[in-house]
Amino acid sequence: MSEVAPHSRRDNVTSGSIRPTWAPFNSVLASEERLLFSLRLMNEDWSSERDFSAFRLGDVLNIQAEVGAHSHAPLRLFVDSCVASLGPGAGSEPQYAIVDFNGCLVDGRADATSSAFVTPRPRQDVLRFQIDAFRFAGDTRSLIYITCHLKVTPAEQSPDALNKACSFSKARNA
Prior knowledge:
This protein is mainly beta. The protein has two helices and nine strands; from the N terminus they run αβββββββββα. The strands form three sheets. The chain has a four-stranded antiparallel beta sheet, with no helix packed on it. Strand 6 (116-117) and strand 7 (126-132) form a beta hairpin. Keywords: Cell membrane, Cleavage on pair of basic residues, Disulfide bond, Extracellular matrix, Glycoprotein, Membrane, Secreted, Signal. It is a single-pass type I membrane protein. InterPro entries: ZP-C, ZP-C_dom, ZP_chr, ZP_dom.
């Protein structure tokens, strides 16, 4: 029987203990707090969650993303990506990208859609967007799953290439 050492040391090792000088900062402590993300289907005037989920093709879906954190520094919420699929989970196939490229509502590029982020935001920790109800081509199922990746930045941080909420303007893309 032979033993193999994972690696050998050639340097001297002292037994003196190391005393770290690091102390947690507020931003580090704040990041340890759990954030409560939600994605809800809202009624027409955005005043409450929609009671029913039956839609006709072309109906507008009001979707509200929100983050809640008690005693947390102010946050700005972004929808990094969203996909629609026929099954639960991000790995289900087929998929249709609704939001992609770090926050662009790509569904709005299609000529027949009115999809867009709603501006202005009601608060920095809330983001609303609208998409047109649709069905996957050639599929008769009436249930579609929407899976989104939400993220936050400090509210005072300006949007940038990785943290944005952009909609396509058909007038400028024509």
